[in-house]
Specification:
The protein is α/β, with parallel strands linked by helices and 289 residues long. It contains 8 helices and 13 strands. It has a 7-stranded mixed beta sheet, sandwiched between helices. Strands 2-3-1-4 form a 4-stranded antiparallel beta sheet, with helices on one face. Strands 12-13 form a two-stranded antiparallel ribbon. A hairpin with a 4-residue loop joins β2 and β3. α3 packs across α8 and α7 crosses α8. It is globular and about 60 Å long.
């Protein structure tokens, strides 16, 4: 018999006894801890915790477990959540005309490497509608012409929010979606949207980062996955990686290497999000790998 499994996450002001209260609560409710991780930030004075556990007492049901944990969190002033480990988060992918990250995420999804549901793919171009169809995923073409008036952009973003609500989306992934989002849309998706930046932040912003990197003769190139905020490419960083390059490589070679790094970095960030391993700590993140 497979016992139901949960992931508990919490953040709060750091104080003595938090781990004891959590472990005691789980023991009292017939739960067995599978793995646990915690971190106390000396700067922010905040404490973060993630516990993966199984519910092994048949006399405790899901509703009572959640109600009792909510009551404990409120009493202890914790920002605590319980997630069903068996539930696959619902992810909406957004892309423009560069498809390597989209293709990589779809492959990982189809092969079972990424435990998610993908009910929608959104793009401002038609380039990848056949790719979406090959995975039997609805493709939503929401065009936005260059220099379009603010009203057109607002209407397009309203449609994005409508899709998020309709499909009960848990996470939006900007898989090289090359449009600047409005502050209103960023606020609406706060903490639930991840972007892949095609360089090692904060260097080489703009449309051609690898050409800039080549011109500067860099020795390392990389990619950065971060939460989306109203400040362009400045959201809390989730994951970064780099590859070593040298003077013999041209801009196209750097771009090819960069695409591989982008795919890996974005896939890690999405996987950690859906496994509830990422907790926000102000402008930073705590990632329990």
């Amino acid at each position: 018999m497979m016992h139901p499994q949960y992931i508990l996450t919490l953040s709060c002001l750091d104080q003595r006894g938090i781990v004891l209260r959590v472990s005691s609560f789980l023991a009292e409710h017939g739960c067995n801890i599978i793995d646990s991780a915690q971190f106390g930030d000396q700067e922010s004075k905040l404490f973060f915790m993630r516990v993966h556990f199984s519910l092994e007492d048949a006399g405790v049901d899901d509703a009572s477990l959640r109600a009792d944990f909510a009551a404990l969190s409120q009493a202890a002033q914790w920002n605590g959540q319980l997630h069903d480990a068996r539930t696959k988060p619902r992810v909406m992918l957004m892309v423009s005309k560069i498809g390597h990250c989209l293709n990589d995420l779809l492959f990982r999804y189809k092969s079972g490497l990424l435990a998610v549901e993908i009910p929608a793919i959104v793009s401002n171009h038609m380039d990848f509608y056949q790719l979406a169809a090959s995975y039997n995923i609805p493709f939503h073409h929401l065009p936005l012409a260059t220099g379009a008036p603010a009203s057109a952009k607002a209407a397009q973003e309203a449609r994005i929010l409508e899709l998020i609500a309709t499909h009960d989306i848990d996470l939006v992934v900007l898989a090289r979606y090359m449009q600047i989002l409005s502050p209103e849309l960023c606020d609406a998706m706060k903490g639930k949207a991840i972007n892949i930046h095609h360089s090692f932040l904060p260097s080489f912003k703009g449309a051609k980062p690898y050409a800039q990197a080549h011109q500067r003769g860099v020795k390392l190139i990389g990619a950065t996955a971060h939460f989306v905020t109203g400040n362009l490419d400045e959201g809390p960083i989730i994951e970064q990686d780099v590859e070593r390059v040298d003077h013999a490589m041209d801009a196209d070679t750097l771009s090819a290497i960069g695409r591989d790094v982008e795919c890996v970095v974005l896939a890690r960030a999405v996987k950690w999000f859906v496994q509830h391993r990422i907790l926000q700590n102000g402008d930073k993140t705590v990632v329990f790998k």
